[in-house]
């Protein structure tokens, strides 16, 4: 029994490994470039001084330290101000993005789907003519993860305005590149359905909740959630006739009925008048014809 427990604990320690870390001189704003951990280190318990940026991993072993937690709190504020309801976006989209980056940074199985490489000077997305030192990182996720997170965000104003984010992979790649100035890491996404790829079940944007993964959220609207539109435009048929203004309806039908009778009567009178005129004209023509014939016969 003791041997089996020892094997289990050692297997769990090897299986739960971290591939990168980061430290900050003045968190959350001034941080060093993240660095790869070689060889990978086991996940660990960390006492965070700032609120948990990732409530999903509350009181668990993680791969993120106190500095990274503080930095994520700041980054997640920016995500909310970019994709959330305060800028006309969708809070569930923002929460889904936060959850993905939580697993990228803190998941105890980080080394399975996050591969940290070298530090390298790369173009700054804000000022491409300038270079910034960043860690090159590969992040492998499943196809379903990419599709689900994109579907929850595709109608947010920021997404609709950027042509590079009009597909699941484009949406992820844009974030991985545009996040260089803040995270000091260039994250390249790979889509794979291998067992080691990160696979998450995201909340659809039409989910009616007030918290998502521990983050407060407001319901998304049809303007920012495609799947919400069907419900918004559906009008249920009345199940009863209660509440209808029957007196008004009765008067309306009576007016229509009387008007129809007047029209029919008028058409009938007009037709009779026309028939009478035609008959009189026929008699007149016949009389004239007879008179002419008599006059001619007298000669």
TrEMBL record:
UniProt signal peptide: 1-16
InterPro entries: NPC1_N
GO biological process annotation, one example: sterol transport
Domain Niemann-Pick C1 N-terminal: residue ranges: 17-232
GO molecular function: sterol binding
Keywords recorded for this protein, A-Z: Membrane, Signal, Transmembrane, Transmembrane helix
Pfam short name (any one): NPC1_N
GO CC aspect terms: membrane
Transmembrane segments: 244-266
Coiled coil: none
Protein name stated in the entry: Niemann-Pick C1 N-terminal domain-containing protein
Organism name: Blepharisma stoltei
